[in-house]
Amino acid sequence: MKNMENENVNSQNINNDDNIVNMAIHLLGLFTGFIAPLIFLLISKKEEVKKHAKIVLNWQLTLMIYYLISLVTLIIIIGALGFAVFGTLNIIFSIVGMLKANDRILWEYPLSIRFLK
């Protein structure tokens, strides 16, 4: 009986650890760009962690494209607006992704191009 209880506790700890890692991937994407999600994608052996890393990596690569477009259009006023909008969206999407990961929901970032599937 105690072995079954220990197994349940161990599996819950593993799930909670994965949950924390998934949340961290979203948060680290906000601060490190594509670097942290790419590292988690390459070193993780767990499929759930890889799914979250791919979603964040897709968003960060998409964001780089949006920033590049904003930089090119900076000559006109709309480029500055693009930087402000996409910077704000990055913060919002990272926080929402982290909260969804805490609820064990795989949330795809809106406006994100799917480079990795």
Characterise the protein shown here.
The chain has 117 residues and is mainly alpha-helical. 78% of the residues lie in helices and 0% in strands. It has helices spanning 2-32, 35-43, 47-72, 78-102. The protein is elongated, with a radius of gyration of 17 Å. The protein starts with a helix and ends in a 15-residue tail after the last helix. Residues 1-11 have low confidence and may be disordered.
Structural class: mainly alpha
Helix content: over 70%
The N- to C-terminal Cα distance equals: 42 Å
Counting DSSP E segments of at least 2 residues, the number of strands comes to 0
Question: How many separate domains make up the residues?
Answer: 1
Q: Radius of gyration, Cα only, in angstroms?
A: 17 Å
Main beta sheet: strand number and arrangement? none
User: Which blocks of ≥5 consecutive residues have pLDDT under 50?
Assistant: 1-11
Instruction: Compute the number of helices.
Output: 4
Q: What general form does the structure show? A: elongated
Give the mean pLDDT: 86
Give the strand content. under 5%
SSE order: HHHH
